């Protein structure tokens, strides 16, 4: 009986998975807010990829063009050093999205492996969760600031620091889902017929963690973008020669009323990126959540 249960359950789950993916996209595209969020993220991603082609040198400054209002020559105006705000905003998208995407990708990969192993092996869980609890006891911004202070400013340093900070949170989320999945009848049946740990990992437990992993990955992305901007705002993130939305907001502090375009456009780009990702993942979560009926 056990030998028949596991393959049958697996085949049913694979069939459901194949039919669910296109259905998610169809339902997502029927939601106006989700479509708007996708469009915003596509524009931001396109701008970051095409930054060298659609914007000039973000560090080039002309002293006589300081604090110019938006015009045909400088559509976003210029800053206090005569640099083009449009170029700095576009290249700032490149830096912020790179930090967010790379951090979320590495965090998700590491957190999924560690979290599922913790859910499958009790001895591993006892060791890893003590480390996770210790790291998560520190505020995110404080821990990230301490690591960047030790390693020095730089894009790689910020990504490394944020990855170390966010992996424990991803690990805890995945572990919770893995603990539930490891008790499912199909996993017990797979163990009964002698399925190996790797097969159980990939075929039975990992698919059960998809929704929480997607949600946590999106949260990691938005938080990484915000933390990178916060670190750059206080001068502890990216180096001065790398444009960043946070650095642009920091430079605009003395010109809040006299040159609102200095902080308005970078701030708007930051807000739209974070808001769009939150709206998108909320809609995806609602569609994938069976308790919501996939509405």
Automatic annotation (TrEMBL):
Q: Which residues form a coiled coil?
A: none
Location of the protein in the cell: Cell membrane
Q: Name one Pfam family in it.
A: OppC_N
UniProt KW Cytoplasm keyword: no
PROSITE patterns on file: ABC_TM1
Transmembrane domains' residue ranges: 33-55, 101-124, 136-169, 189-206, 213-238, 258-281
User: CDD domains under this entry?
Assistant: TM_PBP2 (cd06261)
Q: Residue limits of the ABC transmembrane type-1 domain?
A: 93-281
**InterPro entries assigned to the protein according to its UniProt record, in alphabetical order:** BP-dependent_transpt_permease, MetI-like, MetI-like_sf, OppC_N
Q: Which UniProt keywords apply?
A: Cell membrane, Membrane, Transmembrane, Transmembrane helix, Transport
Question: Which Gene3D superfamilies does this entry report, sorted A to Z?
Answer: MetI-like
Q: Which domain of life is it from?
A: Bacteria
The main place the protein resides is membrane
- UniProt topology in membrane: Multi-pass membrane protein
> Can you tell me which family this protein belongs to?
Belongs to the binding-protein-dependent transport system permease family.
Q: What is the official name of this protein in its record?
A: ABC transporter permease
The record lists the lineage as: Bacteria, Bacillati, Actinomycetota, Actinomycetes, Micrococcales
